[in-house]
Amino acid sequence: MTNQYPIPVVVNGAAGKMGREVIKAVAGASDMTLLGAIDHNPEVLDKDAGELAGCGTLEVPITNQFEPMLAMAAQERQLGVMVDFTHPSTVYDSVRSAIAYGVRPVVGTTGMSTQQIQDLAEFAEKASTGCLIIPNFSIGMVLLQQAAVQASKYFDHVEIIELHHNQKADAPSGTAVQTAKLLAELGKTYNPPLVKEEEKLAGARGSLAEEGIRIHSVRLPGLIAHQEVIFGAAGQIYTLRHDTSDRACYMPGVLLAIRQVTQLKSLVYGLEKIL
Ligand SMILES: NC(=O)C1=CN([C@@H]2O[C@H](COP(=O)(O)OP(=O)(O)OC[C@H]3O[C@@H](n4cnc5c(N)ncnc54)[C@H](OP(=O)(O)O)[C@@H]3O)[C@@H](O)[C@H]2O)C=CC1
Ligand SMILES: O=C(O)C1=N[C@H](C(=O)O)C[C@H](O)C1
Questions:
Q1: pTM
Q2: What is the number of alpha carbons within 13 Å of residue 39 lying toward its C-beta?
């Protein structure tokens, strides 16, 4: 069913690396309208969101008034959507508030705990409100994860390396955590130890995620977002790798999520569920 009116979209974290990209994408989508752009960075307050994003004037000034913006979105004829690319420390509260206002969250911000996601799922269920939490919006990563699940049927040894720019707040990445979870869901324990290991430097063997899977996090300027899943067996290594070179790669997934979340009545986690 097509919507009669454009979907009103509020972007939280509008001045950030992802927020600016989302503003460009929403401005270019004929079935969406940018209703609001929120950011708490005082340097961008009142600046035009479109100019900041580099897509021309949109006459949407950046505001730090989060709740009034949600209230405005809730009054639109068409269900409002809040896209959140902010920070792990605030995303839980923002998503809860959006659901309370009846505004549908599309969440790209990573770093929430399993408990926080579970709480939000229960809250969205009670409110019969759609919510999408997507640790990675790129189609390439969905394909990598599917290939990893396939490979894990045949390999008992696997480690994950995720590599990101050095402005990233959370480690390991939300995508690496999700990848480990997908492999763990197959019900087997990986990497049975052959020797008693001793870390001579704490953290040398990375972090231990679910079912024996280790995640190693690299942070360097010059990187954007990259992930390797390395399977090992006697006499062979099978490596899956995904590299991003531009944050535009996430935008088809973000626009799809904005369209899909208005049709949902509960929380859904992961891009693969809406493809
Ligand atoms: N799901 C996916 O596919 C992807 C997810 N991400 C995730 O998205 C999140 C954001 O990434 P990125 O854009 O690179 O980060 P940035 O730091 O570039 O952008 C975040 C923006 O949000 C602002 N901000 C932080 N907290 C608040 C708040 N409470 N209210 C309003 N504005 C706020 C920041 O302001 P200030 O700088 O002043 O604090 C900044 O302008 C991260 O968690 C990252 O891991 C990133 C890429 C893809
Ligand atoms: O901070 C980033 O940049 C990214 N964060 C997400 C994550 O933590 O998985 C998605 C992607 O890796 C880029």
A1: 0.97
A2: 25
Active site residues: 164, 168
Whole-angstrom distance, CA of residue 41 vs CA of residue 48: 14
| Domain 139-244 fold | Dihydrodipicolinate Reductase; domain 2 (3.30.360)
Distance 106 CA to ligand 1 centre (A): 13
Domain edges within the chain: 7-133+248-273, 139-244
CATH class, domain 7-133+248-273, is: alpha beta
Is ligand 2 within 6 A of the CB of residue 244? no
Equal fold, 7-133+248-273 vs 139-244? no
Helices (H) and strands (E) in the chain, counts: 8, 12
Q: Quick count: other Cβ atoms within 10 Å of Cβ 25?
A: 23
Ligand 1 pocket check for 109: Cβ under 6 Å: yes
- Is residue 47 in contact with ligand 1, taking CB distance under 6 Å? no
Pocket test for ligand 1, best of 63, 86, 116 (most atoms within 8 A of CB): 86
Helical axes 17-27 vs 251-261, angle rounded to 10°: 70
89-146 pLDDT, tens digit per residue, is 999 999 999 999 999 999 999 999 999 999 999 999 999 999 999 999 999 999 999 9
